[in-house]
Design brief:
The protein has 305 residues and is an alpha/beta fold. 45% of the residues lie in helices and 17% in strands. Strands 1, 2, 3, 4, 5, 6, 7, 8 and 9 form a 9-stranded parallel sheet that branches. It is globular, with a radius of gyration of 18 Å. The two termini are 36 Å apart.
């Protein structure tokens, strides 16, 4: 049965909910799980022409050092380090005008070719035409596992984003050890049917980074397995599927987008560190603007081969 499902996934046929459920229920570290990871890696390679991307999340600078130049300087450094797209995080305490002003500072500090993406979870939070006129290329949406209202509206939200000339990326967040396969099946099918530019999974650490043995924390092995199922479920024209937190295990299994973090409350791995992580997982790391958000075309990548 796993053979049939993997064949369907590789040939880009829609996986049925029962197919996705069977993949999720496959025991970790089994031969079937290893074959799933190999199939996931192959599907990512075909979709991206064997390229991986590093994106970076630039949140608010929550110190006395916050200034217009501090954002511009940080954005330029990320660009210099080789980021393929920069995600500008919206903070709930910000006014719409302040967010757009900060966005303009960041946009103007970067090369016109560098992709910037707005992390605004609800489309109505920021008028899409304002985001487009500020120079954004996409919108990064987060969907909380088990939030069925999010899932029901997801396809319409993505269509609205595309109609405004922007590309939607979707990350399934808040994954914990107690999430059910049933909830995951619903989420993965809804994300696939929304046809995003990229998709990803992210776990929730209930007590913060480093508390590895706390109840409720999803293991890296299980997170990688969920990412593998996401890649097999997604259509073949989605160039990248990501995992957070970043790790080599996920990259080996087919995750070809990882996120660095800069500023905000939880600074994380750097762009350079993640490029090295992809090297260890034997990916080619894209030099230039994101394929996912339309900055680099498949034709350009084929010329480089």
């Amino acid at each position: 049965m796993i053979d049939d499902i993997l064949t369907k996934a590789q040939n880009d046929f829609d996986l049925e909910p029962d197919d996705v459920a069977e993949l999720l229920a496959t025991p970790l570290f089994s031969m079937d799980a290893a074959r799933m990871q190999a199939a996931s890696r192959l599907k990512s390679r075909k979709a991206s022409l064997n390229y991986a991307e590093v994106h970076a999340v630039l949140g608010r600078i929550n110190t006395s050092d916050e200034s217009p130049e501090s954002y511009a300087s940080m954005a330029r450094q990320l660009e210099q380090d080789g980021v393929n797209a920069l995600i500008v995080g919206y903070e709930g305490s910000e006014s719409s005008d302040d967010f757009l002003k900060r966005s303009s500072l960041i946009r103007n500090a970067l090369s016109p070719k560098t992709m910037i993406v707005a992390a605004v979870n609800a489309v109505e939070e920021k008028p899409l035409d304002a985001l487009k006129s500020t120079g954004y290329n996409g919108v990064h949406l987060t969907v909380h596992s088990g939030n069925y209202d999010d899932l029901i509206a997801l396809a319409d939200r993505c269509e609205t984003i595309r109609a405004a000339g922007l590309l939607p990326g979707i990350c399934l967040v808040g994954l914990t050890a107690d999430i059910t396969d049933e909830a995951l099946v619903s989420a993965l099918i809804a994300i696939r049917d929304a046809e995003p530019a990229l998709s990803a999974v992210a776990r929730h650490d209930p007590l913060g980074a480093g508390r590895y043995h706390e109840p409720g924390r999803l293991t890296t092995a299980r997170l990688t397995h969920i990412m593998t199922v996401m890649r097999l479920t997604m259509f073949g024209d989605v160039p990248a599927v990501g995992i957070h937190e970043p790790d080599v295990m996920g990259a080996v299994a087919g995750a070809n987008i990882l996120w660095a973090t800069a500023a905000g409350n939880q600074p994380g791995p750097t762009v350079i560190t993640l490029r090295e992580m992809f090297y260890d997982a034997q990916w080619r790391v894209l030099d230039g603007p994101s394929l996912c958000y339309g900055g680099t075309s498949p034709e350009q990548l084929l010329k480089n081969k």
